[in-house]
Amino acid sequence: MSSNTSPTITAPSSTEKLPSENKAELPLYATGQLGDPDFKVYLTNDDDPQNLPEFRKWLTVAVIASGALLATCASSIAAFTEAPIQQEFKIGTSLDIFANMSIYVLGCAVGPLFVGPLSEVYGRNIIYQLSYIFFFIFSWPVAFAPNIAVYTVFRFFTGCVGAVFLTVAGGTVSDLFSKDKVASPMALYTLSPFLGPVLGPLFGGFINQHLYWRWTYHLITAWSFGQVIALLTLVPETFAPVIIKRKAAKLRKQTGNSKFWTEYDDADKNIGQEILVSLYTPFQLLLLDRMALLLSTWTALLLGILYLAFQAFPIIFMGLHGFSIEMTGLSFIGIGVGMICACASQPLWNRRLAKVMEKYDNNPPPEVHLDVGKVGGILVAISLYWLAFTSYPQVHWIAPIIASAPFGAGAYYVYTSVFTYLVSAYRPVAASAMCANNALRSVFGAAFPLFAGAMYSKLGPVGAMALLGGLATLMVPMPFVFSKIGARLRAKSRFAA
């Protein structure tokens, strides 16, 4: 979830006369002449998205959050379609898991690499609209796939276009609210992509218990259609540079005067070059910056464990406790409750952060954001050990569900901590840092379900969960260590601010 924060520019009118000595610093027209300061176009109070009515801003956040929820819910809703798909397409378990879940999550890694540069040129809104129009179109072949090849290819494509909301949408929230008011709407948006994978099995369980498996994707198709309508009718453009450029174009058309210009005019912008940079910079960051690599590995491990649970929970609750498909889907509610509780505690963390910011004169080091991650890492490790030792048939089924709640809370804390840290510490390349993190998380999320069955068969539920708890324990010291040495590592980094 990257947040591409746009500059807030205000002025009393659409043009402002600048001192003549500044003319040498003005950008060039497409014709090559210097811009006349009398015709420079600014963002006025009427144009500023932060001045929209509160209801309109929150409605926009709700639509954006719904898009992120759908994109992530679509990945895990397939968890209970595996058995009927195996029977209908006559394929093995590994190929089924890959086609059902892993390929979609890999698509979520690929799509954002192309989206960032396009959203900064054409605006956020057109990218949202096109992404969900294509998501809707690509969902049809999945729902009516005649064979596994068609099913797999279009699952990948839906993952690619759905991932837009995991990278660009945070920027929209930042565009709409000032720094002192952005925390609550950002918390609502941030919760959505984490809650989506938990709601997926819940919906999928009820559908596959009572209906044909293709209804799983009929639901996704219908939801995506509603999302398209909401995006077309309810969400305004919020990216300031694009708003200003459109305003200048409108003035040129209305007046017939070609002298209107903006500080964002750039005749030499090369979209192909921008996309190329967005493709290789995230991988440079992972290969050359140890701090970015380790923090991204931490979040990737958590997402991998979450997606592994989509294979593990049926083993625990259907195999050990005799749950039906729909009741097994409900067993994920513990993780969801943990995430909601963690989100609800955000105001407490915000007040603590406000005190820290006063101490540092409103310019704290990025390491202060790792404090939330310290709590989250401990909660995740405790939860996995707790799950391990409640995964016995003689232990009441409610125990492992309760044990999963700290995992949800801890994962939320770790994600928000690491995401905020990456954006703050790697500000010059924040979008690339978030793309790198998303790519690594998606690879882990795609890979872990593939070996879940073998691991649980070999180690048993207790041994498998204890192994995951051990891996999580190894990560617990990370935020504590980086809080101490992060400043030194950033000083040596070629990417950090």
Structural commentary:
It is a multi-pass membrane protein. Keywords: Membrane, Transmembrane, Transmembrane helix. This protein is mostly helical. It has one domain: MFS general substrate transporter like domains (Growth Hormone, Chain: A, Up-down Bundle), CATH 1.20.1250. The protein is 72% helix and 0% strand. The chain is built from 19 helices and no strands. α8 runs antiparallel to α14.
Rg result: 24 Å
Summarize the amount of helix as a percent range: over 70%
Structural class: mainly alpha
Assign the CATH superfamily: MFS general substrate transporter like domains
Give the SSE order as H and E letters: HHHHHHHHHHHHHHHHHHH
Q: Work out the number of β strands.
A: 0
Shape estimate: globular
> Sheet bearing the most strands, described?
none
Please mark out the parts with pLDDT under 50 across 5 or more consecutive residues, or reply none: 1-34
Q: What's the CATH C level?
A: Mainly Alpha
* CATH topology assignment: Growth Hormone, Chain: A
Distance between the termini: 20 Å
Strand content: under 5%
What's the architecture in CATH terms?
A: Up-down Bundle
Mean pLDDT: 83
